[in-house]
Structure formats: structure tokens, C-alpha cells
Amino acid sequence: MSWLVTGGAGYIGTHVVRALAAADLSPVVLDDLSSGHAGFVPDGVPFVQGSILDRELVERTLREHSATGVIHVAGYKYAGVSVQRPLHTYAQNVEGTRVVLEAMAAADVASIVFSSSAAVYGTPDVALVTEDTPKAPASPYGESKLIGEWLLRDQGVATADSASPLRHTSLRYFNVVGSGDPVIYDTSPHNLFPLVFEALIEGRTPRINGDDYDTPDGTNMRDYVHVADIALAHVAAAQRLAAGEPLHAAYNLGSGDGLSVRQIMDAMARVTGIDFTPDIAPRRPGDPDRIVASGELAAQDLDWKMRWSVDEMVRSGWEARRTAG
């Protein structure tokens, strides 16, 4: 009995793999290493290098490892770049999810936890996003994640009266930061934490894109959630699916109050010991003042909670990046 983690060699996926192993749920990794790193996969965890678009490979991996279910983390995750690469984004995120579901059906595997995204909401005009907030994705990436949720829903309906009805849930998360292991760090060229870390390491001044937003300090506010907490929520969802316990179709893994970009910058200076005043750059088009989500539903069902302070989130990420050299 095992759980297949697609994208399990990536920053988020490998944290999920470690959390599964700690819970004795026997993870297996499938990753094409387009953005993941083989060195992130823990020793002793089976690793299959390949694409989720390879249906035969996905089905064979599920069968060979007697998979109980799938935690589907693999995908093209760059929202901004997806505008320039919509066909690639849809191939990886929509067709990839369809292929995974088809392989699961063929292998008689009926449980899936889908890594979705806050991008399904677009730029909501509400103080606190809930699971019922209207979906209005603003990028091909956000659209592809919403379609992924629809694929799970529709396959669940189609198999409801079968011997192995699909049981599923989607976890919508926001800005994932920090590190739960000093050998794993965020290598994204687009995320705030690695952008600031690289600037500080190279002796450059980090920048804030706009300081005239309608927020207490003028910089936009977002949910920042620790990657280890995200991983634990995936494990909790997998355990409930395996036990046949009820789950909602989707959960927000949100903080409930959020942090501003300036608060993040202040924490960066405190934790790193590098005193700096961020440069102020123009706003990025389409950046909303605030996107913060409630995590109440996930707290009820998935033991979701914010276990790390902002300084602890920064420190864990900074130490992992410095360990990497």
C-alpha cells in the first residue's frame, strides 16, 4: 500500500513525500524533473522519472506499487508566465490531470488529493476568501487549476455508482514559503521569498512593487503559509480518503489574516541580519490590494493551522537556501 506523489521531487511535493513517510504512508515519487530535483527525494523512497502525460507509465507505477491513492502536485505553476505559454500550461495541468485520472481508473485506484491554487479566485473583491467565493481566474494557470477541480468532480459523478467511485478533494493554497528540511528550498524564479534571498546573497536591494495600495502600510497583503503545514494538510486529506471519511470537494489553506509585503521585508532584515530599505518599484498590473483566505473549513477537517510565525517562516527558508550554497 502506497501513495503516489506526482511532482514529488519539487519544493512542495518533496515536503509532502517526507510528511507521508513520517506517517508511514509509503510515498512513491513520479517526476519529470522539469522543475524538481532528484536530490530532494529522500533515500529509500521509490523514484520514477517520467511525465504525467505518459499514461502507460502512470498506470504501471500505480500497479507496481499497489497504490492506495494519488497526491497530484505535478503541474506548471507559473501564473504570470502562463499568459505567454497557455498551450503548455493547459497541456501540463489539464491534460496531465486527465491522464492521471484515466490511469487511476485503469489501475482501480480511487482516491486523489489535488493540489489546486488560490489562482482559481482571480482577484476577488472580498475581505476574506472562502471556499464559496466566486471563481474568476485571471490567468491560464488559474483556469487550468479550476478545470482540474472540474475533472475530479465530473469523474466522481461518473463513477459514483461503480465498484470504485472516485473519492477526491482539492487543496487551494496561496503563497507557500519556508522549508521543513535544510536540504530543500524554493527554487522558483518568480516567488517572493527566493527573489529576496537571491537579492540579499548577491548584494542587491530587494524591491517592493508598489506602496500605495489600500492597506495599513501601503503594500499589498497576501496569505503566506509554511510549506510543512501545507504538507501535513495533504497527509491529513489522504488519511481521511483512505479511511472512507467524508471530505468537502475543496479547502482553502489560508491564514485568515495575511501579511503585507513590507512585513515580509521587515522580517527578512531581522532574520538575516542584513539591514536594507527596499526599493519601491511601480505596481504590477492587476495586483489586488489584498487576497487573504479563511482556513476555518480546513481547520475542522484537516487539522489545518498556522504553526510558524513570520520570522520562523523566513528563518527556515533562509537557512535552507544558505545550506544549498
Automatic annotation (TrEMBL):
Origin: domain of life: Bacteria
Pathway: Carbohydrate metabolism; galactose metabolism
Enzyme Commission (EC) number: 5.1.3.2
Domain NAD-dependent epimerase/dehydratase: 3-254
Record-linked InterPro entries: Epimerase_deHydtase, NAD(P)-bd_dom_sf, UDP_G4E
A GO BP entry: galactose catabolic process via UDP-galactose, Leloir pathway
Pfam families according to UniProt: Epimerase
Protein keywords: Carbohydrate metabolism, Isomerase, NAD
Record GO terms (molecular function): UDP-glucose 4-epimerase activity
First-level EC class: isomerase
Claim: NAD is one of the keywords in the record: yes
Reaction equations catalysed: UDP-alpha-D-glucose = UDP-alpha-D-galactose
Cofactor annotation: NAD(+)
Family, as annotated: Belongs to the NAD(P)-dependent epimerase/dehydratase family.
Protein name: UDP-glucose 4-epimerase
Organism name: Microbacterium lemovicicum
Organism classification: Bacteria, Bacillati, Actinomycetota, Actinomycetes, Micrococcales
